[in-house]
């Protein structure tokens, strides 16, 4: 008898794959790979797609662990991206208007359009969706 959560897990797997492909395509099209720091999200998404395919077509502890590690990498990359985007925006805003400080600086930093301060948060969401697709012990 099929686990009642399996249809939902399959749909989440499809959404995860589409999300990783879409964000990966956007990063590639915007040339988000000038250096290793910028290439990390593309690398994490690529590893995540491979781990997702492995997990989708194989059962057991190894595919499950591979997906967990890949999703941790995606989440970690998202957190690092939030930090890098914020710091970059804050430096630019401080140079643009040295009188900014406190909340005014934070708001100006968060409102900056390039790089978008919260865009890497999409990786956090993808990582969370990835965790939800992981089959439990019963399928080992």
Would you write up a description of this structure?
By secondary structure, this protein is mainly alpha-helical. The protein has helices at 6-29, 36-57, 61-96, 102-111, 121-133. The protein has one domain (6-132). The protein has five helices and no strands.
Layout of SSEs?
Elements (H helix, E strand, L loop, with lengths): L5 H24 L6 H22 L3 H36 L5 H10 L9 H13 L7
Helix pairs in contact: 1-2, 1-5, 2-3, 3-4, 3-5
Question: What are the key terms here?
Answer:
elongated, mainly alpha, 140 residues
Compact description:
With 140 residues, the protein is mainly α. The protein has helices spanning 6-29, 36-57, 61-96, 102-111, 121-133.
Which residues sit in consecutive blocks of at least 5 with pLDDT less than 50?
none
The total count of helices amounts to 5
| Number of DSSP E strands | 0
Strand fraction band?
A: under 5%
Measured on Cα atoms, how large is the radius of gyration?
A: 18 Å
C-alpha end-to-end distance: 15 Å
Based on helices, strands and strand pairing, what is the structural class?
mainly alpha
Mean pLDDT: 93
Main sheet record: none
Task: Note the overall shape.
Answer: elongated
The ordered H/E elements are: HHHHH
Approximate helicity band = over 70%
Number of domains: 1
